[in-house]
Design goal:
This protein has 2 domains: 2-52; 54-109, no CATH class. 85% of the residues lie in helices and 0% in strands. The protein has 4 helices and no strands. The two termini are 36 Å apart.
């Protein structure tokens, strides 16, 4: 999935660069080496974001749905408890992520 996103972003960037006026390339900040480096760095960041953050979310959602499905099959009362607790767990996890992100930013400021 990350490879497809990266390929799509690179294609869009390349198409937009090719549509620029020829005089645009005369500026030092629009040189070939600068553009290729920027393209490589930007797509690497996008690939990292799409593979590191999206995959665990999809995996967690599928696990939650499969767990509730199995609970419904074996014991519907337990499934109701799981369904009722899912929003509480999700809110708790999002608060934990925000706290960890804030602590991480505080450590980087030192």
């Amino acid at each position: 999935m990350g490879t497809n996103v990266t390929h799509t972003i690179r294609t869009i960037l390349y198409d937009n660069i090719m549509q620029k006026n020829i005089g645009w390339f005369d500026h030092r900040e629009n040189g070939t080496s600068v553009l290729t480096t920027a393209m490589a760095q930007d797509t690497t960041i996008i690939n990292g974001v799409s593979t590191e953050s999206l995959a665990p979310q999809v995996e967690g959602t599928c696990s939650l749905l499969a767990g509730i499905g199995i609970a419904l099959f074996f014991c519907w009362q337990e499934a109701l408890v799981c369904i009722a607790m899912s929003p509480v767990m999700t809110i708790g996890k999002s608060i934990g992520v925000k706290v960890m992100h804030k602590l991480s930013n505080d450590q980087n400021d030192l």
